[in-house]
Amino acid sequence: xxxxxxxxxxxxxxxxxxxxxxxxxxxxxxxxxxxxxxxxxxxxxxxxxxxxxxxxxxxxxxxxxxxxxxxxxxxxxxxxxxxxxxxxxxxxxxxxxxxxxxxxxxxxxxxxxxxxxxxxxxxxxxxxxxxxxxxxxxxxxxxxxxxxxxxxxxxxxxxxxxxxxxxxxxxxxxxxxxxxxxxxxxxxxxxxxxxxxxxxxxxxxxxxxxxxxxxxxxxxxxxxxxxxxxxxxxxxxxxxxxxxxxxxxxxxxxxxxxxxxxxxxxxxxxxxxxxxxxxxxxxxxxxxxxxxxxxxxxxxxxxxxxxxxxxxxxxxxxxxxxxxxxxxxxxxxxxxxxxxxxxxxxxxxxxxxxxxxxxxxxxxxxxxxxxxxxxxxxxxxxxxxxxxxxxxxxxxxxxxxxxxxxxxxxxxxxxxxxxxxxxxxxxxxxxx
Length: 432
Ligand code: LLP
Prior knowledge:
alpha/beta
């Protein structure tokens, strides 16, 4: 059984997060429930800040990709820990601004930003806007000119790096809706258009090759391709760009199988490659941006459920019915994503049953995990699914009009709600 650092088992054989009994938390706040360890979150942030200090003499910044989990409280933690923020929609930007996040440390991404979203980003003077395609470049040029502002931008490129992860999370290849291709000349064309725009300041180039990547080599390859392109930009236009954004995608450990590199290993391999290329091409060492999402919040979260039934189908399988499902935990239904599950009130008992954890939504594919190990459970038990901090709350829905659960933060032995759970009235409030 793989337990993330913030997870333990206490003397009563109950699962803990940040030292607090998860069965008590479930009793106090109800289930289903997202619970997070603030200490783990902060430690994950510090892995990046420490590694950037070490590997780049501080000449870089980690921007938390809040698509992994966006709420004001976590924006504030990232700010306190010295991270910037990568936002991907008007409302992620709005959340960050409402949290008081410094706009100059926000980078605004997205492959089809609306004019309203671009205007909000320009009006709030975000640090960088990441341009994804030519129509967006034209819209932004117009908006900046109308507002009489100079806007710092980066260009999202596709470096054609194939990565080994699930298909939905591969984004750096030419057959992708994201960014400008290098091979076709569209990237260089975009660079020249930005340089001649008069109101856009091209700080650098960006790529994001995928998510849940388990090797540093793919990042190193992407660095080499982008730095070669920076050299080409200098040669063709005379412009020497000052920033390189290598995106996110640093894999985390979900189960016993598979060991991703540690954050300092990713950062040091990337830093070494940037340094080597800067020397090779006679470029100044760029400021290096990283965009971790999953690796900041993933390991810090667990989701708690109450078991409603155990249905043994002889010779077929055993279903354990929970009060959650694909509405709050969509990653198994979408990607067959693996998680570890533990019975929180029997954490010391043998972990020797093979079960399917089912949700309460009206479809057979509404499963949280299949053929997963668990203790022998019965109705009323609390089941914890581990490492659920990334892309669960953020991708949750109200399918079957199920309210999204609350997020409870554990800090120094205390718990508090940082995102309220939805009520039935929250769900009908827009019905006319
Ligand atoms: N930067 C950009 C431009 C991205 O598109 C993403 C994620 C990140 C950074 C952060 O990647 P991370 O460090 O979290 O891997 N819903 C999927 C993951 C989709 C990732 C989308 N982009 C999942 O549940 O696994």
